[in-house]
Amino acid sequence: MTHLALLCVRNEGAFLLEWLAHHRAVGFNNFVVFSNDCDDGTDEILDRLAAMGWLTHVRNDGPYDKGGIQFTALKAAAKLPDLQQAEWILPLDVDEFVNIHTGNHTLPALHAALPDATAITLTWRLFGNAGQVRFADAPVTETFSRCAPTRMFWPWRAAMFKTLYRNDGTYRKPGVHRPRDPDKAKLDAARWFDGAGRPLTEMFKTRRIFSDYGQDNYALVQLNHYPLGAMESYVLKADRGRAVHSDDLLGLDYWVERNFNTDIDDTVNTLAPVRDAHLAELKSDLELGRLHDAAVAWRRQRFDALMLQEPFRALMGRLMMTAPSQPLPLKAAQFLVRHATLARDQSEN
Questions:
Q1: Most confidently modeled of 58-62, 63-67, 255-259?
Q2: 256-278 pLDDT tens trace
Q3: Looking at residues 119-142, what average pLDDT do you find?
Q4: How many domains are there within the chain?
Q5: Fewer CB within 10 Å, N or C, the chain?
Q6: Is residue 247's pLDDT more than 60?
Q7: For position 89, what pLDDT does the model report?
């Protein structure tokens, strides 16, 4: 089978090679990557990778439609031959790593476990900062192993998923969390399963973007989500801006809702030997190695410059003073969910 991962990046050249090497080890054999307005040489890295046959690079420097940067890229992606020819598609971000728990931990093993699936939801497992202050040029998956528990009751973002879907015409366009533009004539035959192998209801075929609370959604596959990284990296993320909600500035609210460190999960590194072989192949290319090192140097220089500006220096100080987040117990979460439900019902009436 052909599996295509779709990615949008800006100023993330320091993380790109690890991400590609890991997902090649998982079983993705094609990548389409959109870059926009890069300062760290990410676009040059992607050009070199395209010349080496690793991926297709598309510059997405604007103008952007009202949906924003990522939606503009996804809209353009739907028209590309790479996507039209792929058998399976998964839109991802560079801080998301597919982690398969069945068989030999690859995509074919996942399909063997769910042979009838049209779509498989990969629920986020949030990996916290674990007190890491400075950015290090080391694998993200080895630097951060502390994470949220397998059962979370709040916030709802902890249950969000990305969708690996069969490109059989049931859905005609990729979306950030789920495929879009369904063919209504094919929806009845579509079969959705979650990361634990449970069949999902009809609602998931057209609407849902998060899994049910309070259950383990990871028996077969999970999506390791590293949205924070080191505190230094988070300051750079705030400077970069968000791909979807580009007008929303990152602050402590985003941090607190994702900085869970109660559990340890290093299962993603089962594929580390294969990943490292791919990574060594990439870094053996002198031009690619030079560009990677330049992206790492740019991050350090940019952080130093940001720390001379009060908003970013203040953010760094708050990050250093803020304790890790604690998962809410069921009763506390139910209190919040009840009010969220009331607000939704009132808005619909």
A1: 255-259
A2: 999 999 999 999 999 999 999 99
A3: 98
A4: 1
A5: C
A6: no
A7: 98
Rg over CA atoms, the chain = 20
Range of the domain at 206: 94-348
Q: How far is CA 19 from CA 15, 111, 130, 146, 218, in A?
A: 6, 22, 20, 19, 21
Tokens 């973007």 belong to residue: 209
Give the position of tokens 């993380």.
15
Both structure tokens of 53:
């046959």
Is residue 76 situated within a structural domain?
no
Partnered with residue 171 across adjacent β-strands are 182
The strand ranges marked E within the chain are 3-9, 30-35, 56-59, 88-92, 96-100, 119-126, 146-147, 161-166, 171-173, 180-182, 192-193, 221-225, 263-264
Q: What is the pLDDT of residue 243?
A: 52
Residue 57 lies in a domain: no
Domain presence at residue 31: no
Q: Are 263 and 149 in contact (CB under 8 A)?
A: yes
Residue 64 has pLDDT above 90, yes or no: no
**CA 110, CA 146: separation in Å to the nearest integer?**
25
